[in-house]
Amino acid sequence: MGLDEERCRGLSICGTVHDLGKIAVPFEILAKPGKLTLYEFGIVKTHSVVGEEILRNLDVPWPIAAVSLQHHERIDGSGYPLGIKGRSSTLESRIIAVADIVEAMASHRPYREGLAIDVVLAEITAQGVHNSTRRLWMYVFGSLRKSSIHFPAGTASDAAQPCAGAGESRYRIPIIFIRWPRSGTA
Description:
It is built from 8 helices and no strands. By secondary structure, the chain is mostly helical. The chain has a single domain, classed as Hypothetical protein af1432, CATH 1.10.3210.10. Helix 1 packs across helix 5 and helix 4 packs antiparallel against helix 5.
C-alpha cells in the first residue's frame, strides 16, 4: 500500500478522533446494557456528522473530518450517514471502518463480553467479505494471525506502534493496518 510516515501519523490521529462526535450522544445510550431502540440508534448515528462538524475547520494535513463522517460507510452503500457506495470514501475511512468493526467485536460492551480475536475473524469470514475490500480484510486477518497481539475476551488490543514515533492512542487496533506492503492498493 505504501503509506508514508506522515500518512501513518495521520491515520493514527484519525483513529483517535473518529468517534469524537459521540460527545453529543447521551451517556445513558452509549452505556445501555441492552439492545438500542431505533430512536436511540438514530441518535448514535448522528455522531459521524457531529464529529465532522467539530473537526472540519481544523487546519491539519489529514482527512480527519472526512474519516469522522465516513467511518460507518460501507462499500455496498448500506452504511451511514451518506450511504456512500464503492471506493468513494477516503482510504483512511475504509481502514478505520475495518479497525472499528474488529475493535467493536473484540471489546467488552455493556451488553456483552468481548470476543476472542479468533472468534472475531471466524465471524467476519462467515459473513463474507465484499470483493472490493477483500485485500484490506485479508491483510488485516493475516496481520492479526501473525502478530503477537492478544485480544483476551473483554478487552481491546495491546498492539504495536503504527509508525516509529507516532505515539499510541486509545484506539489501538488501526496501528496494525499500517504495515502494508509497499506495493499495490487496498
